[in-house]
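Q: I'm building a small set of examples for a reading group on sequence design. Run inverse folding on the following structure and report the sequence directly after it, with nothing in between.
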């Protein structure tokens, strides 16, 4: 049975490949759907090495490379995720294979609409709740999120301060899934952490 809501996990940029391999394997066993390789300080060669190594413990179809469209294209993984400083979805599509996904991080409705118009397959919107990675920056909440999900035909993934306890608020606003960073990458047991998120997504039935 296919999962209704997606669970994305994003690497921290602070952990070694060996650590991430262990986290990824455990999180996948716990119910993670996609792993984003978000390693801004690493070279294309290093990112490619990460994709190759992670492909030994996860299906390549679960791996998304952030920013490095060249690496995603060469690796043939699930796709590439774009930031504000990356190529546009239109430009990335010229490099990627037809079946590969293009995601885009957005922070406002106009950005989301532009990404969709340029061919993004999904957008990542946040941060929804107070987040340790965004200290002092007010969360955007779910009101704007609901407007975006209602206006777009592509999936919207919520991100930022999401816990198993508040994940339902993102789903109630129309999200197709959630993205998690430290909630899984910094957890003592990545498998159990992913399982808690997976259960929260699978058990949600519109209570909000």
């Amino acid at each position: 049975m296919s999962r209704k809501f997606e669970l994305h996990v994003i690497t921290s940029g602070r952990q070694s490949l060996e650590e991430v391999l262990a986290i990824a394997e455990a999180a996948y066993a716990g119910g993670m759907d996609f792993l984003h390789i978000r390693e801004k300080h690493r070279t294309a060669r290093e990112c490619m090495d990460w994709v190759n190594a992670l492909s030994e413990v996860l299906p390549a179809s679960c791996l998304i490379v952030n920013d490095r469209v060249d690496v995603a294209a060469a690796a043939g993984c699930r796709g590439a995720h774009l930031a504000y400083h990356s190529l546009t979805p239109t430009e990335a599509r010229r490099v990627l294979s037809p079946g590969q996904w293009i995601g885009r991080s957005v922070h406002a409705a106009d950005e989301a609409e532009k990404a969709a118009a340029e061919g993004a397959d999904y957008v990542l919107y946040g941060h929804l709740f107070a987040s340790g990675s965004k200290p002092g920056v007010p969360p955007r909440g779910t009101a704007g999120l609901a407007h975006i999900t209602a206006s777009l035909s592509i999936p919207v993934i919520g991100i930022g301060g999401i816990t198993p306890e508040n994940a339902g608020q993102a789903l109630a606003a129309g999200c197709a899934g959630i993205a998690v960073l430290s909630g899984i990458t910094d957890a003592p047991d990545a498998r159990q952490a992913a399982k808690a998120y997976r259960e929260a997504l699978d058990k949600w039935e519109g209570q909000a």
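Residues 55 and 179 are 20 Å apart (CA to CA).
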